[in-house]
Structure formats: C-alpha cells, structure tokens
Amino acid sequence: MKILVTGGTGYIGSHTVVELQQKGYEVIIVDNLSNSNINVLSNIEKITGIHPEFEEFDLIDPKRTSEFFKKHYDIKAIIHFAAYKAVGESVENPLMYYGNNLYSLVNILKGMKENEIENFVFSSSCTVYGQPDELPVSEKAPIKKAMSPYGNTKQISEEIITDTIHSKSQKLNAILLRYFNPIGAHETALIGELPLGVPNNLMPFITQTAIGIREQLKVFGDDYQTPDGTAIRDYIHVVDLAKAHVVAVERLVAEKCLKKPEIFNLGTGNGYSVLEVINSFEKVTGEKLNYKIVGRRPGDITKVWANPEFAEKVLGWKAEKGLDEMTFSAWKWEKAITKIK
Ligand code: UD1
Fold first, then answer.
1. Which residue segments constitute the domains of the chain, with CATH numbers given?
2. Of 11, 138, 250, 278, which is most buried by a Cβ count within 10 Å?
3. What would the DSSP string read from start to end of 136-170?
C-alpha cells in the first residue's frame, strides 16, 4: 500500500516514514525542503534499508500538485505534515502562514477528489484548545480563539476538512491528530529535529545550549500558577507520535467510511514543567545546563496536558516512552549532528 507523506523530510514526518516503512508500507514523500534537509532521505534508508521515493515541490502550486496526483494515482492514503509551525513568525507574517498552510491543504484535498483518494491524516495541534478550562483536556473540549495565525491555520484546516466531509462532494475519510509537545529523536540518532537558526522550542534550545551553540537558555516565567512556577506541557516522544500515524492510517483504510473526522489527542497524559524538563535533561546526560529565569513569553499558556484515553480506546495506541528517554534521545541526537557539522 502506497502512502504519501507530505513534509516527510521534516521532524515528525521523517520519524513517521521510518515507522511506515518498518511496517511494510511503501512511502512517497513530497517536501519543498524549506525547513528540512535532503540528507534525511539517506538517513531514513540507513535505518530501514529503503530509500523513500521523493519529489521536491511546493504543494501551494495547484498545477504541480494536480500533476503529481495524476502521476501517482495508486496512493491509498495521505499523511499531511507539510506546514509552517513557528508561532512567533506567524504573528509577524500571517499571510505567509495562511497562504502556505491553507492553500496546500486545499490543493491536496482537490487532488484527492480528482484521483478518488479517500484516506487523510492531518497534523493538528493542542494549540486549538488554548488554555483549557479543564485538565487533562479531552477532544470534546471547546475550541478557543486561536492565539496566533499559526494556531488559526490549524483550526481553519480542521474546519476545511470537516466541511469537505460534510459536503459529500467527495468521499473523504479523515483523522485529525492533535499533537501535544513532540520532543526527542530516533534511537539511532540518524534523524531528529533540525531547527533552522535559533530554535523557538524548548528541547532544541536546551540541547544547543548544553553543547555550546547557545550561551544560555531563558526559562520564560516562573510566576505561573504551577507547583514550581514554570509552565507545564505534555511532552511526547516523537517516535511514539510517529507510531500513532501508522495506526491512524490503518484505521482509515480498514473502516472505509467515517461519517465525520475522528479527532485524537496525541499526548502522554502527563504534564511536566520547564524546570522538570531541565532536571530530567541534567540527570540523564550529566550535563549542567546554563539557564536563567526571565519574564513570560507573550502568548504562552500556563498549563496543558492531554487526556489520551480516546486514542487508546479507538486506535489501541498509547505513548510508551517517558520524559528521561525523551531528553536522553534529544541529547544523543544533538551530539550526533554537532559531530557532522
Ligand atoms: C508551541 C505551540 C504549539 C506548536 C509548537 C511547535 C502554542 C500554545 N503552542 O508549543 O502549538 O505545535 O510550539 O512549534 O502555540 N520555553 C522556555 N524557553 C525557551 C523555549 C520554550 O522556557 O527557550 C518554555 C515555553 O515558555 C513553554 C515550554 O517551554 O512553557 C514549551 O515551549 P515550546 O517548546 O516553544 O512549545 P509550546 O509553546 O508549548
């Protein structure tokens, strides 16, 4: 069975390609390499023994996207990762985010219609919940007004997919996966997160600081209403997250027709504070991290963690790796890429 993975050379995409190939699926990747590196393909091959088929182009190009689908009419399912994801950048340049994240989605859905491809897995985010009223947050929690254009593209994308299903204009089965905070890297340290420039996210900033690329980590705020005052998130190992995509695709293909999109939280159900992540990192690596507490980062919420029960019940999927394994694998990866540089 052939599966299209858009954004398959990216962080979560590459780990998902590995899991799919290891389960025997044929994968074709489309990526414009705007935030990833072509060498990821050969590193995937080092892990799985298979060089994934790859086409480099921009899914915001309708003609090119339509031609691609005509050529690859045998695709059975699509996992759509390709999107911009930096919150701050989206505030500075909203049209870049709306243009990229939404046009590409529309072009793919049109290509699916033209070629009668029915199965679609979409990368969404827990950002759609904002600061939830109840924790852990379940999929039934209300969608709050997005705090950034990036978050809004995820909300609008979910609506575009839902409207397309309801319209019955095409046969579409979709699963929306709402990720919490993916961190860590593959155990081989052959693939992982490759931030361009200064990382926005916590984990790559920690590892880059520990290895000496950044001087000091800033901990954004210690005056939150949490036990140690720093903000709490549900960090999930990227390999656990990747595995959820395989079972999501399998469910779509097996069920044939879901009347509405199914939505799953992908988290561990555990919340950790920024200081707890730092402590885990220092403990498992033996490195001392240079950090200081500064003011809050605008737009950050206080705390969020998932109720992951629905994914376990319906998909039979559960995150297995704990925080120490996540921080250890992130460090192993940082050391591996620094050696290459
Ligand atoms: C954000 C987005 C999320 C998106 C993800 C990936 C929101 C609310 N969240 O997650 O949707 O999918 O990025 O891009 O829009 N921190 C520091 N110092 C740093 C970096 C981070 O203290 O240098 C803290 C943050 O304040 C936060 C935690 O670490 O409390 C995690 O931050 P980060 O990794 O950026 O993820 P989120 O903001 O949770």
1. 2-183+236-266 (3.40.50.720), 202-233+269-333 (3.90.25.10)
2. 11
3. SBPTTSPPPPPSSHHHHHHHHHHHHHHHHHHHTSS
